[in-house]
Amino acid sequence: MSSLLLFTLVFCSQVMAALNTPLPPPSYGDKVSILSIDGGGIRGIIPATVLIHLDNALKAKDPTTSLAHYFDVISGTSTGGLMALMLAAPNSSHSHRPLFTPSQVVQFYKKNGPDIFRSHHLFRCPKYDGEALRQKTTELLRETRLSETLTNVVIPTFDEKKIQPVIFSNYKLKKESHLNAKLSDIGLGTSAAPTFLPSHEFENDGVQFDLIDGAMAANNPAMAAVSEVIQEHHGEKEILLLSLGTGIQKSKDKLGGYFDLGCQASWLPWHINTIGEAIYSTDMTHYYLATIFPALLSADNYLRIEEYNLDPSMAEMDNANKKNMDNLEKVGKGLLTQKVKRINVNTFLPYELDQTNIQALDRLAEKLYAERQLRLKRKSMEKGGRGFVESVEDLFDGIRAT
User: Fold this and answer.
1) Phi/psi of residue 209, each to 5°?
2) 255-271: buried (b, 16+ CB within 10 Å) or exposed (e) per residue?
3) In the beta sheet, which residues pair with residue 292?
4) Number of C-alpha atoms within 13 angstroms, CB side, residue 320?
5) Cα–Cα dist 338/335, whole Å
6) Contact at 8 Å (CB) between 1 and 39?
7) DSSP letter for each residue of 84-109
């Protein structure tokens, strides 16, 4: 009986140790995996809802793991940047678990959205004072710094004083120590959408930052994340990329006609949505990725999930009333049953593939799980070490011998 109890205790400790192991670095595997999340304010509910399915698919294979145990990089801009930090920051009660699951992210938006996007003045610029977001972000992320994330993150921001992008990336910390800022500062910086929220100023390691929305640099951060990975691994590893959008309306207005100084005043107020689309458009990101993935990688390794026909009533990034947030969640769930779409880089129009997004996510889960298991096995066998399965077999042999 004592031998069986000893076996049970040792077995359970081996199982828990194996299941809670962080993702070994890509040097032990064949691929580098990236999760990228666009900006879009309260519309972040859409990609968060999509991620619930992937998280559940991976937990069905290993219930103790999180997305940070499978993705080498989680990248995000603006609301996507906040989400990336929530998924990659360690939980104070368990250092190997993330601060939030995708399901908890959705609930965070629905609970705190109304406070974040509540204006107390009829005329204000920026529209919101940002205090609710600042308080909640600081409360959640505390003193945690970039170097402490469970996996690498890539968060684009834009410095309005220096007039240049600032990319917060774990990969850059080796040479740029001033980028090892608090996650709360990074999150507040990347989400400071001009005219909506105030810029975020702070100092770190003697360097002054005055940051606004990362969408000014890259509303779709996928290309920034891929660039960081290629620089780090010199293009030696195959890349798996999941890129999630926050929904766009079907194209209506187009830039056209003769545009000169004389007509700007009358033209601009009626085409503000066109200007916004031109600034925050992700079309060029699709164009560049279409060049990289077919040429250097397998096209099957790039999955983009986006709602290309979002109801105009849900387009506003700050519409945080309950009905709209519930509808955004429905959009995310509805995306799962839609066919996978790719962008034609000649027409910039989406076309359908022969599988649904839920099927594509399940296949991605298989690839992510297989890559993780491969890395764990190779790491355990390093320097003549024995793998988990072999260790369990030895335990059984010991029990039988007693």
Assistant:
1) -120, 140
2) eeeeeeeeeeeeeeeeb
3) none
4) 20
5) 5
6) no
7) HHHHHSEETTEEEEES--HHHHHHHH
Q: Which two tokens stand for residue 254?
A: 């187009």
Query: Does 257 score more than 60 pLDDT?
Result: no
* Residues belonging to the active site: 78, 213
What percentage of the chain has pLDDT greater than the value 90? 63
305 SS3 class: strand
Task: Give the tens place of pLDDT for each residue, 159-209.
Answer: 999 999 999 999 999 999 999 999 999 999 999 988 899 999 999 999 999
Rounded Cα distance, 160 and 194, in Å: 10
Contacts 24+ apart (CB under 8 A), 387-394: 388/14, 388/18, 391/14, 392/11, 392/14
3-state SS class at 181: coil
For 248, the token pair is 């766009």
> Does the pLDDT value for residue 395 go beyond 60?
no
Cα separation, 167 vs 157, whole angstroms: 6
Provide the 8-state DSSP code for 145: B
